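Checklist before submission:
- one chain only
- standard amino acids only
- sequence pasted in full

Submission:
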Amino acid sequence: KFAEIEYKTFVSGDAASALLAQGVFTQGQLQTNFYYDTQNRYFTSHRGVLRIREKNGQYRFTAKLKHDSHVDEYECDVLDNTISTDKIIEFTKQFTSSEGFDYLGKTTTYRYSYQDEYGVWCLDFNVFKYTSDIEIEYELHEGIDDAKRHFLDQLKLWNIEYKPSESKFQRLMKEKDSTD
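Returned file contents:
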């Protein structure tokens, strides 16, 4: 378990292309996020999410529980994108007696990244079922209390206007709600 602190902003296609052309972001990789919840919707009703991410043939389960100032994250490696494993069921039993899971959807992200002294910058090209977008995520190293000024200053250097974005999961759910 650890606390996650990150900042996000939407980016235009032109700004993203300019960053890639500068060679700032490298190490492009494809990742797919599969989202689930318990059948009683415990996690979404408590500002949380259950996700299995596939990247480079590896799978990682993540549960995120949002609090006012941070997000608690629980992670473990899994064999595939099957949510109903003993390990995951055991984890969710800490919060709810609901044992069944529902599949909520997936996102596909083409991620480019680089690291600085405070954390990891990610330039994400995201594809949902019916829409797509581009964002910059800045995932801070543990123990960094406030690097928001650094984040905003760096955006200015890149001529990027700060346009806060919700999480990929929140955007997936909004899209799902608008098409159901």
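Reviewer check: The CA atoms of residues 4 and 65 lie 10 Å apart.
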